Amino acid sequence: MTDKFAFENVPRPYAQASYTTPPEMRRGLSAAFPNLSFYWRMFNTVRRAGSLAKAGKYGGTEWIRSSYEIVREMEMCGTVFEISGLEHVINMQGPCVFIANHMSTLETFALPCLIQTHRDVTFVVKQSLVDYPIFGPVLRAREPIVVTRKDLRADLAAMLQGGPERLAAGRSIIVFPQGSRSMALDTQHFNSIGVKMAKKAGVPVIPVALRTDAWSGGKLIKDFGPIRPQIGARFKFGAPIEITGNGKEEHTAVVSFIQKQLAEWGISGVTNEKPE
Known about the structure:
alpha/beta; eight-stranded mixed sheet
């Protein structure tokens, strides 16, 4: 299941513990017309990735490259990325479960080049994403755990079976327990499935706080809304948390980490509000 990584030809700006977009990336016509520029470049990137996936040639290295291109395309439009805590990803021994809040489409595109660069990873994703005409083949090539968001019992079974299987094979997992996207952390719907998968597989969890509403939701197509570079994008990885008991304390620690970071970034409280 695990790809043999071949990073020689892959840019690796995220090999250090932290990263901030350099000033020279934020200039030109792309910054003047962010929506036109970004979506034109982004769809070309996804189209190329989809063609490779359909041909059976989309492995970990290709995933890193296309993810990296999406981040760069956001940066060219003026979006400043601030990424920290990558030392926890770099120094981890073995697979883990990454548990993150879910704010926009951006994290789905950006997280692979941050994590896959250091360790093999896949997502828990909803069925509608793998059914997308172009993006779907890309996700399917990475062997995600697919859930329906309609049958909770079946989804739980899929995650508790598929999660430990992938973790045992050395592949880490990214999960968004909220399911649907929201601006602030919706603790009422932030379930503990990530902790449950980690406990069953005997691996740690790494909390991930993110603010990604620079890529906002759309009114006609919710995944593709206005690009707002002035907001910036922030990703912070926490220290690994071992699951030693029933998981309740560890789940609380994950939630507290994300809440604290969101508050520091100007987003506080608990809400079901979706990004504009």
